[in-house]
Amino acid sequence: MRACLSKCVASPPPRPRPPRHRRDGGGGGGGGGGNDASSRPPPSSSLLSSSSSRRKARTNPRIPIISEGGQPMQPESLMMTFGYKTSLSEGAIKCPLFQTSTFVFESAQKGKEHFELAYGLREPKDGEEQGLIYSRLNNPDMEILEDRLAVWDNAEACVSFASGLAGITTTILAYTKPGDCIIYTEPLYGGTHHFLEHELKKWDVHAIAIPAGVRLTSKHEKRVREQMDGRALALALVETPANPTNRLVDLADVSNMIAHLTADQDPKRRVPLCVDNTFLGPLFMHPLEHGADIVLYSATKFIGGHSDVVAGAALGDADVLMPIRTLRTFLGNMLSPMDGWLLMRSLETLKMRMSISQQNARVVAQWLKDHPAVTHVHYLDLIPANHPMRDVYDRQCLGSGSLIAFEVRGGESGAFACMDRMQLIKTAVSLGGTESLVEHPASMTHAGMSAEDKARLGVTSGLIRFSVGVECVDDILADLSNALAHL
């Protein structure tokens, strides 16, 4: 909605993506429009209703070019100005906070035209954009943030939310109806697990679990098919790496399973593969490049990065996101202008923060692996070369991130004693901030799981989840050494 930067020299070449599991004829062809960065093609014909329009090219044509060879700017450079035109805000170098509930129309006729587009009563004219109406529908801070978030995953569009769980639940509700089933990988975040296993049942939607940390086979598929019991598959939800054990999921395996399970369903019904990329994204994994349809984030975590905002996001093609965007409008769980403004600030340092945290985590993981009080360390860099998931890590991930799960001797009492002796590292149930945090999944984030499920999924009483921050790594190690000394 807000114009961006300077003139482009040329449109960047499209980035190829692997074939989708979808059978609706999508993909291929399509351009990205012209080079004029001051005009953005609307992602759909309506803010409120679904649309069949779709831009097929993967690369965002609005990303400025910095050379005749067609090399686009990198995301970390674009976070300063992309999607924002200074002349629209008195020359302010930073996007202002648009803390307003509603927007004044230039005339009654303009108001009418804005609502015609919002309700999909007509297609936009050449060069016409959806006008600002009301902050539940659109707001400059929300829209510019969504533009910038989409850059990191090379996504066509983004929908932001008031929390990560709001994004997950809205996505699920947008694609399911009573009598359906969904498949999901486990373990995953405790809040998501509770929604799938308890709340969805109220709508007669059945959730079927498949394991993370293993390659999926025909046996897994057969077991899922039996549990489907004639229900239609509506959606697949993958969390990789899994919370809190860092177990990986091969997205190609899940994509193939979806194709097999939906072979007899209506080919016009889209069954999206949704990936919660909170642990590694948007820097160290790009699920859209591995067959995913929708990428989900708790933007509270690494994207926000300062433990001062709660937010979520869904990214993908515009038509895939349209049912989600429409439902967000009526649920009213959109991102606030203030939180959009805070997240724009955070995106400017995203790569630096995540890179330093990962650098620290690699040192810490090796140190923990050799400590006598630690019985096991779950960290992606430590996956053995001969482990079947090592290939998945090398093929699917660009880094190991900064989340470590480690088990200490003494079960819950040992874990609590260790956590309570920490001084620099704080105990709190979040992750991805500048500060180092630990939590005890079995009694905190995953407390709602049964004892049997915890044991089966590796959420042991001695497990500590550790989000490594950007502090001096020597100070982190000193704090850990003191905390573990008495176990």
Features:
14 helices, 12 strands, 487 residues, alpha/beta, disordered N terminus
Would you mind describing this structure in some detail?
The chain contains 14 helices and 12 strands. It is α/β, with parallel strands linked by helices and 487 residues long. The strands form 2 sheets. A 7-stranded mixed sheet has the order 1-7-6-5-4-2-3, sandwiched between helices. α12 crosses α14. The protein is globular and about 75 Å long. The N and C termini lie far apart (57 Å).
- The strands making up the biggest β-sheet line up spatially as 1-7-6-5-4-2-3
Give the structural class: alpha/beta
Number of helices: 14
Indicate the radius of gyration in whole angstroms: 23 Å
Per-chain topology:
Layout: H1 75-78, H2 108-118, H3 140-152, E1 157-161, H4 164-175, E2 181-186, H5 190-199, E3 206-211, H6 218-228, E4 233-239, H7 251-261, E5 273-276, E6 294-298, E7 312-316, H8 318-331, H9 337-347, H10 350-369, E8 374-378, H11 388-396, E9 403-408, H12 411-421, E10 426-427, E11 437-439, H13 451-457, E12 463-467, H14 473-484
Parallel strand pairs: 2-3, 2-4, 4-5, 5-6, 10-11
Antiparallel strand pairs: 1-7, 6-7, 8-9, 9-12, 11-12
In a few lines, what is going on in this structure?
The chain is an alpha/beta fold. It is built from 14 helices and twelve strands.
